[in-house]
Amino acid sequence: MDAIDRILSARPFNLDETGRDWVRSTLGAMDRAAKVRQLFVHICFGTGPEVVERITALAPAGITKFFGPDAKAELDTLDALRAAAPIPYLVSADLEGSRMSLPFGTEVPNPLALAAVDDVQASATIARIMAEEARAAGVNWSFTPVLDINALFRSPIVATRGLGSDPARIRAHALAHIGGLQAQGVAATAKHWPGEGHDDRDQHLVTTINPLSVEDWRATHGALYRAAIEAGVMAVMSAHIAFPAYVLAHDPDAGIEACRPASVSPLLNQTLLRGELGFNGVIVSDATPMAGFGAWAHRDDMLPEVVSSGCDVILFSDEPEADIARIETALDDGRLTLARLDEALIRILGLKAALGLHRTGRDPADRARLFNPANARIAEEVTARAPTLVKDVQGILPLSPDRHRRVLVYSTGIVTPLHGEGQAMIFPNLLRAEGFEVTEHRPGDRTDQRDFDLVLFLMGEETLLTRGRIFLDWNRLTGGMFGAMQRHWHEVPTALISFGYPYYLYDAPRMPCVVNAYATMDTMQRATLDCLLGRKPFHGTNPVDPFCNLPDARF
After folding, report:
1. Which pLDDT score, from 0 to 100, does residue 480 have?
2. What CATH number has the domain spanning 3-363?
3. Domain spans of the chain?
């Protein structure tokens, strides 16, 4: 049995002879230069012939598409890319819900909101909806689910992208997500290997550390990855996260090597993930332009190590041709072997065949399936179950125009990783439509909260990339030092509504009323208002500790 049969007849590929023969013939027809280019998945913004020409010239394994709102232009571009590709593309996306959904698709909750709903069938249904629309748009690979454990509330990079802090809840919903995606022909990816959530930093900015002992890791992160592998997850994303305890168990004198990122660690990728956990699918690196990668060593050395350490796919490049040359040089000088290159290509091509791309890679997008009103209704029903009443110690709720007519709003606006800062929420206008008189605080306003019947802090910060920290920035919210120090909630009913980050009580433990709603999309804002007005009950349960283990935050 050759390597193609050995790897691709087994889980998670399970390829029949026809699929394996396609991989064999495709690989056999590629020269070394073509193989090197097939190691890459490039980021893809924009539409039009220039995009098609650029990606076609690079001839990668695939692209990660970040979609704009113009569905026709986006799908025309993908159709043109597919038509020009000699080997079908993997087209990937982060199907994480909320603002990370397709902008022309159904609004669905993000992972933390689904964890608050805590209905495994609902999570499976939302995954099905996302996968149906993704595959209709031409996306066949999702970099989800996030298996990270939000153990440390200060972690800015897990929060709303993750499924909370309880490993049992994470496991149940992650497996539902994997099953929902892969049943619709979208490969799932467990991330971020070997496990994030215990470090209060962001691997986009620094190599982060998983500080657990090997025993504790096996009982938590290890158990989650083992479950995902047993469920047939097709890919794992190896991140710029170190796991010192595992390295030191193999080499007590490892020194700085104990903090080597997983993305370039043979011990973590080959010995632990492939060897001990038995993962046979595709290992994709996390994005290589991230500082958690680049801070470790020079890119000339690092990039070939991604592949030689066990990753099959190099994710993203700021300088594609230079990175291709780096791999070529490593092949020339022996740092990377042709055997390892071929093994990576077998899995890349095997993933394409497992998704049926050897049969359907050039089919146009099925645009008629992109938005289904029935799916939208289902998603709204699930969304309505997410808002969570964290506390209301003064009995402020339900809100009413009779008791709370004059409302002062402080807000961050909607802040998301790829959409800039301060986009307007619809929530103030929803309040106005209910008969409230709403004043939105602006920088420089000399506003006295005591002139109002209700003060609302509306936060819209979902998990951010390269932010470093997420916190309640009193100075920015209120416009200066003196406003930042005011606390009139003993005189004026005051509430904080978070459509994102769930831990603001750390900065305002005596805030009398707090609601966590996890996601900024319009359907969540409408659902939360229904709960605040008493038209619908709060169904959500806390998927994390919103009190941040503080002794006073519950009161």
Report:
1. 85
2. 3.20.20.300
3. 3-363, 380-532
Q: Label each residue of 25-71 as H, E or C.
A: HHHHCCCHHHHHHCCEEEEEECCCHHHHHHHHHHCCCEEEEECCCCH
Q: What's the CA dihedral at 130, 175, 116, 91 to 10 degrees?
A: -30
Contact 77, 500 (CB under 8 A): no
| Lowest-confidence region among 119-133, 155-169, 348-362 | 348-362
Are 198 and 152 contacting, i.e. CB atoms less than 8 angstroms apart? yes
Distances (CA, A) of 474 to 82, 409, 466, 483, 494: 49, 13, 21, 8, 15
- Alpha-carbon gap, residue 294 to 205, rounded angstroms: 9
Average pLDDT over residues 232-250: 98
Residue 369 has pLDDT above 90, yes or no: no
Compute the C-alpha angle 180/183/188, nearest 5°: 65
Q: How much is the pLDDT for 361?
A: 52
Chain-centroid distance, C-alpha 40: 20
Q: Which residues are catalytic?
A: 286
pLDDT score, position 521: 94
Residue range 380-532, CATH number: 3.40.50.1700
Flag whether pLDDT at 368 surpasses 80: no
